[in-house]
Write a structure and sequence with these properties.
456 residues, alpha/beta, pyruvate-formate lyase- activating enzyme, OB fold (Dihydrolipoamide Acetyltransferase, E2P), 3 domains, 20 strands
């Protein structure tokens, strides 16, 4: 039985789950995957390629001939976490290849850990493979090393991340993602749909659509049509919605055109769930952030979404303590949250990031003030969550089972993303359930972030 409390790092991906058993004599590679779900997809692609070349995947350091550490470089705290992970891998194994976002700063890594075998940047798959080949030559057995059609997955079998694009065209002052991952590059829609079809055929019950800016999908391709499918988030969502799996949208910027997606949620074609990064509510703070949607009346948009789809669940993340944030601006954010009544909320305290333009802004906020504002913000968000969940007691809802242990079945509603949002627990009559089952429950208890229910 697991819970998902709010975290200072709401961008974190679920824990990687590796269950491969190498054959005797097979060269093996370990993987440490840090950061967001987009990095987790990169890890899956690297391991799928390695598995196809005959490598085994080791679940621990000591059983591996080398270890790949896929790093995060989004915040200074994430960089420190990545350096710690590299150090641990070096200590436990000694043969370490570094990739991922922090790999865009190789001198930063080698300055702290000069013994790493190689450093590559984000989504540089060929360079990672070359480094692995140099450290641990492949020894494939074509009669034994068969790769499943669905590839190597680091998530449970019943859900999977579906990355639809790389990079970002925005220049938010607190973010260095465009510098690390480049400008927007959208995958052809037919390729995304084919991957989704293979996942569903392999038993995936939930597709989690991810990118850096899901709303902008296809803009770099001028929304071209290839093999009968237009490269546009509206068309892609409708295609995915026809596959019979839950479809959950993440990282959707709050442009007015998002309103076109909401009728599909009301129809039940895609989940009534939007993960939408508002970041703040005060217009001056948003301008200092250089947010692309700074001038949009977000409360009006939220009202319009709820008018079309009353059951919609809205999740967002915010930054408190941004340079120049006054008490008045922060209070505007609290008042906005009161009115918006968002269902799921995560929050960062602002951190300087090397290379981000926000570090050069005046009037940085003191650390104790940031902490105080984070505490006040999360207290309000928690109270809203508790009140909204209490309204669900007595309702009958569909849930997907994530885990079954001796205590309970840990499930999620349509309004909960895995390991980010809350859970629904079934603690009676759950023994016959299995991960991936979709069942109907009646909610009989609510907490601050989680629900309890019984099968009906």
């Amino acid at each position: 039985m697991t819970t998902n409390p709010p975290d200072l790092r709401p961008d974190l991906a679920p824990r990687a789950k590796i269950g491969d058993t190498p054959r005797p004599g097979q060269p093996t590679i370990g993987m440490v995957s840090l950061g967001c779900p987009k990095a987790l997809v990169d890890s899956e692609r690297i391991l799928t390629r390695l598995r196809a070349e005959g490598y085994g995947i080791s679940p621990d350091y000591k059983g591996a001939d080398a270890v790949i550490v896929n790093t995060c470089g989004f915040l200074d705290s994430a960089k420190a976490e990545s350096l710690d992970a590299i150090g641990e891998a070096l200590s436990e194994n000694g043969r370490v290849i570094v990739t991922g976002c922090l790999g865009a700063e190789p001198e930063y890594i080698t300055g702290a850990h000069p013994k790493v075998l190689a450093v590559t940047g984000p989504h540089q798959y060929e360079q990672v493979l070359d480094a692995v080949h140099g450290a641990v030559p492949p020894a494939p057995d074509p009669f034994v090393d068969l790769l499943p059609a669905s590839g190597v997955s680091l998530t449970p079998r019943h859900y999977s991340y579906l990355k639809i694009s790389e990079g970002c065209n925005h220049r938010c002052k607190f973010c260095i993602i465009p510098d690390m991952r480049g400008r927007l590059v959208s995958r052809p829609a037919h390729a995304v749909v084919r991957e989704a079809e293979r996942l569903v055929e392999a038993g995936v019950k939930e597709l989690l659509v991810i990118s850096q800016d899901t709303s902008a999908y296809g803009a770099d391709r001028k929304h071209d049509t290839e093999r009968g499918i237009r490269t546009h988030i509206d068309d892609l969502a409708r295609e995915l919605g026809g596959l019979g799996a839950w479809v959950r949208l993440h990282y959707v910027y709050p442009y007015p055109r998002v309103r076109q997606l909401i009728p599909m949620m009301a129809e039940g074609l895609i989940l009534p769930y939007l993960d939408i990064p508002f970041q703040h509510a005060h217009p001056e703070t948003l301008k200092r952030m250089a947010r692309p949607a700074a001038g949009i009346r977000t409360l009006d948009e939220i009202a319009a979404w709820r008018d079309i789809c009353p059951d919609i669940t809205l999740r967002s993340t915010f930054i408190v303590g941004y340079p120049g944030e006054t008490e008045e601006e922060f209070q505007t954010l609290l008042d906005w949250l009161d009115e918006a009544q968002l269902d799921r909320v995560g929050c960062f305290q602002y951190e300087n990031v090397a290379g981000a333009r926000s570090a050069d802004l005046p009037d940085h906020v003191a650390e104790d003030v940031k902490q105080d504002r984070w505490d006040r913000f999360m207290a309000k968000a928690q109270a809203i969550s508790e009140a909204k969940l209490a309204q669900k007691v007595g309702q009958r809802i569909e849930v997907i089972v994530d885990e079954v242990d001796a205590e309970a079945a840990t499930c999620r509603t349509k309004g909960d993303a895995p390991e980010i949002d809350g859970n629904l627990f079934i603690d009676e009559g759950f023994e016959a359930l299995s991960p991936g089952d979709i069942v109907t429950v009646e909610v009989d208890e609510a907490g601050e972030y989680d629900l309890w229910g019984r099968l009906v």
